[in-house]
Amino acid sequence: MSSKSVQQLDRVVIRFAGDSGDGMQLTGDRFTSETAALGNDLSTLPNFPAEIRAPQGTLPGVSSFQLHFADHDVLTPGDAPDVLVAMNPAALKANLGDLPRGATIIANTDEFTKRNLGKVGYDANPLEDGSLESWHVHPVALTSITVEALAEFDTLSRKDKERAKNMFALGLLSWMYHRPTNGTESFLRKKFGSKPDILAANLAALTAGLNYGETTEDFAVSYEIAPAKMAPGTYRNITGNLALAIGLTTAAHRAGIPLVLGSYPITPASDILHTLSGFKRYGVTTMQCEDEIAGVGAALGASFGGAIGVTTTSGPGVALKSETIGLGVSLELPLVIVDVQRGGPSTGLPTKTEQSDLLQAMFGRNGESPVPIVAPRSPADCFDAALEAVRIATTYRTPVFILSDGYLANGSEPWAVPKVAELPAMTVEFATEPNDTDADGKPVFHPFKRDEKTLARPWAVPGTSGLEHRVGGIEKANITGNISYDPDNHDLMTRLRAGKVERIAESIGDLEVDDPSGEANVLVLGWGSTYGPIAAAVRSVRNSGAKVAQAHLRHLNPFPANTGEVLRRYDRVLVPEMNMGQLALLLRAKYLVDVHSFTQVRGLPFTTVELADAIVSLLEDDAATDPTSEEVRA
Amino acid sequence: MSTDLGMPGTSPTAGTAGVPRLAEDAPKQTKKEFTSDQEVRWCPGCGDYAILAAVQGFLPDLGLKRENIVFVSGIGCSSRFPYYLDTYGMHSIHGRAPAIATGLATSRGDLSVWVVTGDGDALSIGGNHLIHALRRNVNLTILLFNNQIYGLTKGQYSPTSEVGKIAKSTPMGSVDHPFNPVSLALGAEGTFVARTMDSDRKHLTEVLRQAAEHRGTSLVEIYQNCPIFNDGAFDLIKDRTQQEARIVHLVDGEPVAVGPEGDRKVLVRTDGGGMEFVPESEVGEREVVVHDVAAPEPTQAFALSRLDTPEMTHVPMGIFRNVDRPTYDDQVRHQVEAAVGTAGGPPTDSDLDELIRGRDTWTVA
Description:
Chain A is α/β, with parallel strands linked by helices. Helices cover 36% and strands 20% of the residues of chain A. Chain A has 20 helices and 25 strands. The radius of gyration of chain B is 23 Å and the shape is globular. The model of chain B has no long low-confidence stretch (mean pLDDT 95). Chain B is built from 11 helices and 12 strands. By secondary structure, chain B is of the alpha/beta class. Strand 19 (470-472) of chain A pairs parallel with strand 2 of chain B, so a sheet runs across the interface.
């Protein structure tokens, strides 16, 4: 490909940053697809403002997309970029702090005008005043070279030509890292098929970027990253929100019941609504309702009718849905609530990630109102989490929370796609006939006569003759379901509802611990999207010779049956969370184990380095108090 | 009172089309079959008893399979209604019944779905869901029991209470302006809007019949007396000596008129674009307002709804509007059916495999 020198790398972290309107998310997505096609393992982190178009060239308007790819398995989107593509001074200023000395900066010099520099408080041009001398800076006139490359496109305005500069940047980076661009070309053909001149301009800009890298003397080296050794299989790249939508659809298909979504748009969950609204061909019904409450209400109504009702939202929406979720607990009907968590409280940080709805999911309702909680650990794992949530909801006739978050929702990773026929079986049995006899021995249907094993009540749907019955949010008499204000009955029903949720633990398997040495004294226990950063940190600590165990919870309610035993097995347990210690609170309360809570709420995933530091610090504490352990200090 | 509502001939089953019916030769259902074994727990003298009896008596007329009828309610005295009917039922939470019923009706075209609600449930806490059900025109029949008071919470003023209502929470009288439920429903472009009264079983039953036959959201406001907290709220129009002078019976295709023979007043248009009642003998050349339930625009129906005043000088009763508009649930189901049909039928495992794989895959050997 090149007469220039080619260097082999094992991993690279690239961050594309620009104005919200610069197309950075698209550029990142395309580079990700090219990288996936090449067989690298990867992980991505889009990061964008809540405003659709903040004032141009300002710090609040900066949008970025980070991609970590490697010749080995990748667990996180990377702590710090090796390469920053800065489309304007704001993008440089907003991201420079994350950039280690020696990293590469590709800056679009055309945008470094006096006016734009002034907008973000630069008195002098950092590209010229020597302040960036610790970094490797490539000043490239991205905009004007793109416009020049498109000179022959008479029909296009200058503005249209300038708009293609992200494709030029993509071309340049594709050259630098030997990415194939045919996928992007066919993507552009599809996107701009009806606008031939725009299509031609984008293709030309892409090629110009490739050629620029090849010919300009500024870029002397290009890089190769060999494909990662991944388990055999067919792979695709997938975001968490897409995996969730496909997972819910697949679960309903496996269960043989319709999927009905009631939802109200909210960041960062809306993409699940968008995606499912396009799945009508798979029998999926979606309703964009008048508010969050109506969304969950419609879902619960559909569940009463024999569908799997699903509602998708984020934290503020869960707050509004709480009463209806409580009704679902009382009616004992299946319902899936997807909470794509974001920074809170209140409106908080709509586009940033956080894990701070755990206690809301656990306790955010009136009365004793237990709801099972399932949390995916990575974008692709959202598929499995969706299947598990539907399994629990339909088997135990209960609302179930899926706690995803902004990082999982928009982040992506390669996924070894499963075959539907090989997925766990999912069966739903509706009640079809009377299940009891009355005092006179006449067959009757009792809607709250429970399955002895699961404690689930029968699911008898309208249209089933002879099983007509009424359910409601008023306390019901055990077995008959008639209204009951009897004290003993309420005590019994409360314990039955709690007991039913506890029994789910019998179907979920033990908490598995990863401890290769078998000699670790310190356990790192996480849940949800912190899996990648925790695993990367654990790996890094082990690489330095220390021993540490890792476990990760998929089920937050109920916890796996052996959780207490696992916690007590270790001298110290570190619980990193993107909240103020919500899981730690639950573990301490339930198991009386004084876990070490390590928290941050910066709207971003943990970095590997900060987690590794936290682990090492705990290992040192442990060693300091344990005379037999010398390994850490040695 | 007259029960002839003067409706144009519509398909007798439009509202319940798609709902399984009893065989032609099957014995007619009885009121008893629709009566559950639960003890009715409303206060003695409550208007809800009469409405319950009318509904239990009317449901057999529909000829539908009982298991395909569902009553969904919210919270309030009226919302206990589903417990007393031997159909499927859900007593849900305050104000949300229309949302829950929307999900049920949309996902199950084979059900006849009814909502029972009250003035507080439908117009205060659940106002949003009510207007959106009407806007979407979901195939539901909503029975709004209006007693102009909060009963279950023991006597606070409601969003339909008259200004100045002295109640538990308003010792000096309420200051907020009430909703007129019919005006509200027409403002939300409800396709079927009617008003009737608990004590007039024949009128109530006929309105229910028309509401059930309407495909789309039917809103039926039912004046209902609360003997404990707002007794006598509708006495002026229940009193046999006064009702004829006050109740305006809306009959499709006929002039809007009120009063007994000999002292009849007819509604005419005024020069300023309004309406007023004038004695029949003084109509002269003036344009008489003729009721048209099927008028495409709800404007005249809305004007009729404004004849109603807290003094109950003139209270229109009957069907204000009854127009056809595609229903939300039919269209949602149609889109799914069309998409499934175009794709060649319900999805198979291999269709799902294709969805899971997406368009951009690579293989690791």
